[in-house]
Design a protein that fits this description.
316 residues, alpha/beta, 7-stranded mixed beta sheet, 13 helices, 42% helix, disordered C terminus
Length: 316
């Protein structure tokens, strides 16, 4: 693991937050839409890769006392904090491990694996190990939720990030100050929107996210190739409503209808139209007992007929 990543997690604490789109109660529904019946999460074995100080895993362990939880993270101090919290709260159905994923064996199969905010921020060899670990550790009906940045949405962000980094180095600024200086120089509304979106993340998240030592966005096509190469199968987004980006208006959705019989091309086109920056995919073992699913073309046709409106935010 590069020293810069170790230093970042040693010197700064990742902000404490839960990850609703990776909640097994939610992803179990997403898997069902994809044709796979998963075990009841309230009695399941659940693993979180990159669990930090347990801020996402501990509430789940409290919610489901009959389930078994395991967290693993490279940051030893964060894991020590997670263990202290579990002890203080009397949570006995969770264990934490300070380990590099490349040398950690896992200790049995898991019904649910969570890897949120991990794939895009680690070197290639760790990315490869993540997919291998999911294939090795998933139970026959298990699922893994893996989030990652999308290159089609990040290609407009990197020039802004590089400009902010230059300002940081030249003037001794932090990320927030550099972005605030760039904002008045933005030449169009979309650039202003990107900078404001970064500023909204705040000083706690920016060093780990937009300004992280590694920030490697992928396309859905590349994600699917890596998953398939490791013996995994993609079931769809962990939030089923985002299989077609909700920011797309009726006209954009209608333009995707001719691609309904080519799901991958349709998904890639939708990502580009939405300038999508993030996905959270659900995968299972390639040999999992997946049942027939609703055709993508039918789902898209229904969404267009219902006249789904985009949510607040950038509108392409």
């Amino acid at each position: 693991m590069p020293d810069l990543i170790r230093e970042l997690y040693r010197d700064k604490n990742y902000p404490e937050m839960s990850h609703p789109i990776a909640d097994p109660a939610v992803t179990a529904v997403a898997a069902r839409f994809g044709g796979l019946r998963t075990p009841d999460p309230s009695r399941a074995r659940i693993l979180e890769i990159g669990c930090s100080s347990g801020h996402n895993l501990l509430p789940l362990a409290m919610r489901w006392p009959e389930a078994e939880f395991v967290g693993v993270d490279l940051a030893e101090e964060a894991i020590a904090h997670a263990r202290r919290r579990a002890d203080e709260a009397g949570i006995s159905n969770v264990t934490f491990h300070a380990a590099d994923l490349r040398g950690w064996q896992g200790g049995g199969e898991f019904d649910y694996i969570i890897a949120h905010g991990f794939l895009s921020w680690v070197p290639d060899e760790v990315k490869s190990e993540l997919f291998s670990a999911c294939a090795r550790l998933l139970a026959p009906n298990g699922i893994a939720t893996v989030s990652y940045n999308l290159e089609c949405g990040w290609q407009d962000r990197f020039p802004i990030i590089e400009a902010a980094k230059r300002l940081k180095a030249e003037r001794g600024l932090d990320e927030m100050q550099a972005l605030e200086l760039l904002l008045p120089t933005a030449e169009d509304d979309y650039t202003k929107w990107i900078i404001n979106d970064m500023l909204a993340k705040g000083p706690g998240i920016l060093p780990f996210d937009d300004f992280g030592p590694v920030n490697d966005p992928w396309s859905l096509e590349r994600f699917l190739a890596a998953a398939s190469g490791a013996g995994l199968r993609w079931l769809g987004e962990s939030d089923p409503a985002e299989n077609i980006p909700s920011v797309l208006d009726d006209e954009a959705r209608a333009s995707l209808l001719p691609l309904g019989n080519d799901p991958l091309r349709m998904q890639l086109a939708a990502d580009t139209l939405a300038r999508r920056t993030f996905r959270s995919g659900v995968v299972c073992r390639a040999d999992a007992p997946v049942e027939p699913r609703i055709a993508t073309s039918l789902v898209l046709d229904l969404s267009v007929r219902l006249g789904k409106r985009p949510h607040a935010g950038w509108e392409p």
